[in-house]
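User: Batch of two.

Assistant: Item 1 of 2:
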Amino acid sequence: MSQFFVKLLVISLLLGPHHLNAQMAYKVQDHYTKTETYITMRDGVNLFTAIYTPKLATATRPYPILLQRTCYGIAPYGNDSYPNHLGPSMTMMQEGYIMVYQDVRGRYKSEGQFTNMTPLTVHKSNTDVDESSDTFDTIDWLVKHVPNNNGNVGQWGMSYPGFYAAAGLLSNHPALKASSPQAPISDFFFDDFHHNGAFLQSYFLLFPWFGVPKKDTTTFAWYDSPPVNTAKVVRDGYQIYLDQGPLTFADTYYKDNVFWQQTVNHPNYDDYWRKRAVLQHYPPNLKTAVMTVGGWFDAEDLSGPLNLYKTIEKKSPGTYNTLVMGPFGHGGWAYETGHTLHSNLYFGDSLASFYMNEIEAKFFRHFLKGIGNSTGLPEAYMFDTGLKKWHQFDQWPPVRFHKQKLYLNAAGTLDRQPPKKIESVSYPSDPMKPVPHTEDLTSTMNFTPYNYMSEDQRFAGRRPDVLTFQTGALSQDVTLGGEIKAYLNVASTGTDADFFVKLIDVYPLDEPNHAYMPHKNVTLSNYWQMVRSEMMPARFRNSFETPQPLRAGQKTAVHFPLQDVLHTFKKGHRIMIQVQSTAFPLFARNPQTFVRNPYKAKSSDYAKATQTVFNDSFMEVDLLEGAITENAPPSVWNFEDYRPRVISMAPFENGAQSVSTSTSVVTLRFSQKMDTRYYSFGKGSLGVESMVRVKRLLGFSEDAQSFSFELDVKPNQRYQLVIGSSFRNENGDRLKPYLIDFKTKD
C-alpha cells in the first residue's frame, strides 16, 4: 500500500547517474506509441486509460495486452509524454506487450467515486459495478478496439494495484488468460492498516491518500499533505506519537477524512470490512492462470499473497495457481539493487533479476504469447531465508512435514514435550512506556514500516517487559516450512491486552559480518534475527465480530496464526520466541482497560497491567522432515553459475603495480555475448578520490564479447574502477561486478 513508485525513485537516485543512464538507454518513445482514451463502464462512468503499443505490432504480428489498474495515477499524462519504464520489468518491456494503465474510479483523470477496497457484488445488474465489472468492461473494450492485439490479456499489480488484479480475477472475462497479483491487499482488517484488527499507527500518515474524495478529474494530487512534515520535525516517531496521547488526537487532523472516520467507526470485523474482503468471493472454476507474488519481509502485505494463493488452491483446485515468495520487503522483487539486503541481512546478488527474468517473464510469455508447452515453473517458488537459497515445491505448505509443538517453559526454554507441572512467568506492561518495535528511530516517521521484519531483536529481548524462550544451540539444521500458530494461555490484571509474538533466529557468537553491512555499528555476532511476528488483541480471541473483555486474573486461551515461513535455523543457531504486549509505534497501544471502541479510548483508560504466560502455551510449527537437511533438493537456480563475468583484461593485468601512463586504452573480455546497450562504472573501496576517469568510450567489439575504453591516468597513482552490474548479457543477466585496481609508474 506504500508509495511504491516514490521508493523506486529514491533507489534509482541512490544507485547513481551511471545506473540511470544504463536504465534509460532504452527509450520507451522509440519503441512504443502512446494513446490516451476514456473507456466507458456499464453504468456510464468513464475511466481514463493510457495504451502503449509496440511500434512493431502489425496485423500479422499481434501482441498481447498487459493491464494494470491503479489508484496511484498513471502519470505522465499527455499523448506526447512517456515514462522511463513500462510493465513489470525491463525484460518484458523489451520483449513487447501492449501495456495498458488505467486510473480506477474516482482517482486522478477517471470519473466516478473512489471507494477503498471496493465491495464486491455477487449478483450484478447493469447498474451494479465493482472492480471485477470494471475490469471486465475494460478488457472487453481493449480486445475489441486496440489494433494489433492477439486477443490475450494479462493483468498485474503490486500492493493496492495488486488488489485490483486480485479482484480482476473475478471478472471471468474469457480474454483474461493470466494474472499476477503482487503483494495484494486482501482484507484491510488483516493487511496494511490492521493485523488481526490491531491498528497500525505506523500508517497514520497515509490517510490523506485514501480518505479525501476529489472534486473533479485531475492530473495532480488533490488531497492534503500529511499532518506531520517529516522533513522538518525530529524523526523520533516513538516520542511524537506517545506525546499525542490516545488515538482521539487524530480528529485534530482527520475530522473530515472519510477513510479515517470509517476506520474509527468500525473497530470490529463488521459488514463494512467483510464486504471488502476479496478472498470470500472466489468461485470454484477460475479460468485465469494465477501467479501470486510476495516478500517474506513485507511489513505491509504478507497476509494477502499467502492467503490469496491458499484460497484459490482450496476453492478452485483446477486453476493454474502458483506462489512466489522471496527475501524482499514490499515490492523489492520489482527492482534490482545488485546486493539483495533487508535491514542488516544479505541474501545474495541479483535476486530480483532472477525473479523478473526466470519466473515472471516466463509466466506471462507462456500464457499470453503461447511460448513453450508449459511455463516450466513449479507450484511454489520459495526462498529459504536461513539457507539463502531458492527452492521449488510441488505444493505449499509442503507435503513432507510434521507439526511440532514448542512449549514456552517458565524457565525461559523452548521444550518439545508438554510440561509435567503447570507454572507461569509474568511481565509488566505499561502503555505509557511501550516496547519500541524498532531501535531505528529515524524510520518511525516513515509512511509505512519496513526494516523491522528482519531486524535484530536484542534491544527488545533484554527489557523486563518482554519474555524470551529459546532452545539450546542446534546440533543440526532445522527447517520450518509452512504455517506457524501461537497457542497462548495467559492471564492479565487488566481487562484487555495485546500479545505480540516473535519467532527469532539467534546467531552464534562467532557469526562473521557479511561484506555489505549497511550499518557499521551492527554486528551479526549473536544477532537475533526476526523471522516472523504477529500481533493479536485478546479482545478478538473468540470472535473478530464481537470483542470480549478479559476477566482479570483468569487463565484464558489466546490462539492465532502467524504468517508462513521458509527458514532454516542452521546448526549452532538457536530458536527463540519473544512475547510482549506492545510494539510501538508500529501498533497503537492497547489501553489494557476494555473499551467498546479503542479508537475513542480516553487517557484515563490507559492502565498498567501484569501479563502472565503459562507453560502449557506453545508454538506449533511445520517442521520439514529431511526436505533440506537430508536428501536435500538441489538449489534450482544459482545465478553465479551462468551470470556473465570479466574473464580477461588487456593490455596489462588487473593488479599491475607499474602501468605506463602511455597505456590508456583498456579492453575487457567477457565470458558471454553482451547486450551492447548497457554499461556502468563505479567507485571502488578506496572511494571516489581513487576512481580513474573514463576519458572516452570505444564501445563493444563486433562479437559483443569485448568492451574498450580510454582512461585518463597520471604517474605514481593508485586507481580503481568498478565495472558495474548494468552490463548484462543478451538474456538480461547482469555482470558480476569487476574491480579494476592498478598503480601507474613514476
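Item 2 of 2:
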Amino acid sequence: MVTERSARESPELRAAEQVVLVVDDDEDLADTCRYWLDGERFAVETAYGGKEALRRLDDTVDVVLLDRRMPNVTGDDVLEEIRERGLDCRVAMMTAVEPDTDIVDMPFDAYLVKPVSESEVKETVEELLVRSGFGSEVREYFALESTEAALDSRDVEELREPEALSDLRGRLEAVRAEHEEAIRNREAQLDRLNRTNELLRDVDRALIDARTRDEIEQTVCDVVASAHEAAFVLRRTAAGTLRCTAAAGHGLDPAGVDIDFVDEAFDIDGTVEDGFAFDDISEAHRAAVVGDAAALDTVSALCVAVDYRETMYGALVVYDETDGFDEESAALFSDLGATVGNGINATQSKQLLNGDSVVELEFQVGGDAGVLAALSATLDCRFSLDGVSRLDDGLTCFVSVAGASGTDAVAAAIDADDVSQARVVSDGDGESVVELRTDAEAVLSTAIDHGASVERLTLSEGSGSLALHVAADADHGALVEAVTTAAPGVSVVAKREVERSVQSPDSFRRALDSKLTDRQRTVLETSLVSGYFEWPRGSTAEEVADSLGISPPTLHEHLRTAERKLIETYFDELSPAPADD
C-alpha cells in the first residue's frame, strides 16, 4: 500500500513577508510559542537569548515577542537597540517581571505577564501586525493604552511612583483628543479583527467534532451566522456548477438561496478571487437573501474560496450589515475558507481510513502522464510506487525499479528537468529502490489533494495502471474528472467497492505484541509515561535511558526498532482486499 503523510497545512494565503521573532532564553517556552503560532498567516522564528536576537533583527521582522529577564543581553537592552537602529517593528514584552512605573517610558507596544496562554500570544501578535499599518500617532496611543492596562493590574499603592500612572493617563487623554477620529476608526478595525479571530477559533473548535462534509459545512454556516447576519456554503459539483448545500441566518433554506450573483466571483478556472466583496447588493437580491429586504438597512457580502491546495471545494458567502469588509477581515475569512477546505479534506481522509469499505478507482496511465512514466519509458524498465509524500513544492516518491539499476535510474532522473532531487535508497541485483522529488506528477498530486489514497502505481516502459482508494461517500465523479484532466493519457477503466477486514483493538495489540520483545515494549511504555513523546518533552532521552539503566544509544536503538514494528503493523492492517464480484 502507498501511504500519504502530510501535516495540517497552513492556509495558502499566509503572508510570508510578515515575520514574528520569539526571543527567550527559555528554549522550551520559545519553541512552545513558535508551535502555537505556526500555521498562522505569518512566518515564525526563534532566538534563544538577547545576543542571538540582535544578530537576527533587521527590517524584515514585523513583530518581536521579547523576554525581559535574560542573561548578558536583557530584553530591555534588545528593545533599546531595536529603537536605536530605527527598526519599524512592533514589540511585545513577554516576561515574568511584574510591571511597574519603570515601564512608562519604555518604547514597547504590549506587555504580557508570564505565564502566557496560547490565546494571549496569538491575539497579541495578530493585533500588533494590524497596528503596524497605523499612523505613528495612533500607534503611540495604543502603545500607551497597553502600558496603562499593564499597570492597572497592580494596586496603585504598590507602584514605585504612583504619580507616573496619572501622568500616563494624562498623555493618553491628550493624544486621543488630538487624533480622536483616527483612533476611533482604528478601534473599530481592531474590534472587527478580534471578532473575526474569535470566529475563526470557534470554527476550529467546531470542526473538531464534525465527522462528515455536510456537518462541516452546516457547522461553519451556523458559527459564522451567529457572529454576522447570514452565511451559506456553495459546493462545486463534478460538472463544475455550484449548488447551495448549507445555510444559516434569517431563516435561509439551502434550496431557496439565490446564488446567481456569485458567478461573477468565479474565474474561468473555477477558482474564487481572494476575498471577493459585494458591497453594493440590490434590494431585490437582499430580499432573496434575508427573506425581507426591510430586515437589514444595508448588506455587504464577502465570497471566499473553500479550497485545499489546488482542490476547489466551493465557496463560503458571508453577509453582514456593515459598510463593507476591510482587507484584514477579507484576508482572515480567506484563511477560514482554507481551514474549512483542510477540514473537508481531513474528514474525507478519516472516512477513507476508518470506513468498512472504500471505493477503488483504476486508471490507465500513458507515457505523457508524468515524470515517472517518462523515466520508465526512457530506461525501458518497470516502476512500482512504494510510497509518496505530499510537499508544498511537489512530491517525494519512493519507487522500486526492475530492469535497470538504481544508479541508472537516479542518473536519468537528474537529467530530467522536472526532478529536483534523486538518490538511491537501495541498489540490489534484481530490484532497486530510489527516492525522487518532483513537481511534475500532477496526477498523483491531484489525487492526494482530493483526499484519495494512492494504493498502487505500476509502470512498464512508459505506461501502466494507477489505483486510488477513496471514501465510499466521496464525490467520485469530481475526482475522476480532476485526475483524468490533470495530465494527458489518463483514463478511468474501473470502479469497484473494496471491503475492509474488521479487526478489533485486541487483535491489533496481539499482532503487535507478537513482534515486540519485552525490552522493546518496556522502552516504549517508559518513554510514553515519562513524557518523552510530548512537546515540550517531559523527559529527555538521557533521563529515560537512566531510568531504564541503559545508555542513550541503546535506548534509541530499541525505540527505532519498536517504532518500525508498530508502524509496519499499522500499515499492514490498512490494506483492504477487493470485494467478491
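Residues 7 and 226 are 30 Å apart (CA to CA).
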